[in-house]
Amino acid sequence: MYPFDYTRVSDTEEALAAGRRGGRYIAGGTTLVDLMRETVERPQTVVDISGLPLDEVTATERGGLRIGALVTMTEAAAHPKVRTLFPVVSQALELSASAQLRNMATIGGNIMQRTRCTYFRDVTAACNKRDPGSGCAAREGYNRPHAILGTSEACVATHPSDVAVAFAALEAQVHVLGADGQRQIPFADFLLRPGSTPNREQALRNGELITAVEIPALPRPLASGYLKVRDRQSYEFALTSAAVALHVRGGVIRDAKVAAGGVGTVPWKLPAVEQHLVGERPSASLWAAAAAKAADGARPLRHNRFKTDLLKRTVERQLRIVGGTK
């Protein structure tokens, strides 16, 4: 680990000032500290924001939820309003990491975490995300855990967050605070596909601070859930996952929100699946036909071709779980 300065701030203005000077925000620290140990991240200054008043879950006027950036994963998963209104979020959080990490890690930090690509974390390997222009060792190396959607010649790394998949499905907004005041970023625009600049991962401006993630009000009744497929049952990242939310009224699907994880360079919204569902009556054949569209545009690599079919089966299974019918 390289030497660094540490400062603890007590209000958002102090935090923003430190951020504009190049400081890196830290709260739970579960990802940044790991990367600093591996010398992947080398911040000159670490800014501890854990004391800021951003740790509440509140209902919005229209029936959505606003989750403060410093709410821990454990607190968010257990919150009665989260569990009642959006169980897909609770389930995604509870299937993440370990209990010890969930007790420390925050919502803001979770969506900001960097890829688990082994080449990114190996400072001797070529990685455009870590060292722009150096190449992508994963493309010709061992790429079983890597992405099949949203990839580019420069990068094929997946985004590791489970709850980000749920936020993407629910079309959440990320609230940020910066020198120019507050703004909201649609979750679909917050995490960036690699393109030719994989080192730029989020749509944050210099020194901006995440204050909350807001889930909009969605039609009721709303059934939702998260399914994660992985090599082992606990403390493992997804090979594929599916976040599904369905609004069914009068026996017809009126609205559908579907996203996938473990297969994309960012949490992958599935509009073709959603469009196939809306206006139809739940049935086993409908789930299968909709899920068949889940891997549209996939570009598998040598070791992860299995993800194409696994993604379709994962989406179909979760549609069946959330929507009913055998």
UniProtKB/TrEMBL annotation:
The protein's superkingdom reads Bacteria
Keywords on this record?
Oxidoreductase
Record's keyword annotation contains Oxidoreductase: yes
Alphabetized Pfam families for the sequence: CO_deh_flav_C (PF03450), FAD_binding_5 (PF00941)
The protein's matches in InterPro entries, at most eight in alphabetical order, are given as:
CO_DH_flav_C, CO_DH_flav_C_dom_sf, Diverse_Substr_Oxidored, FAD-bd_PCMH, FAD-bd_PCMH-like_sf, FAD-bd_PCMH_sub1, FAD-bd_PCMH_sub2, Mopterin_DH_FAD-bd
Q: Which residues form the FAD-binding PCMH-type domain?
A: 1-220
**Name the record gives this protein:** Xanthine dehydrogenase family protein subunit M
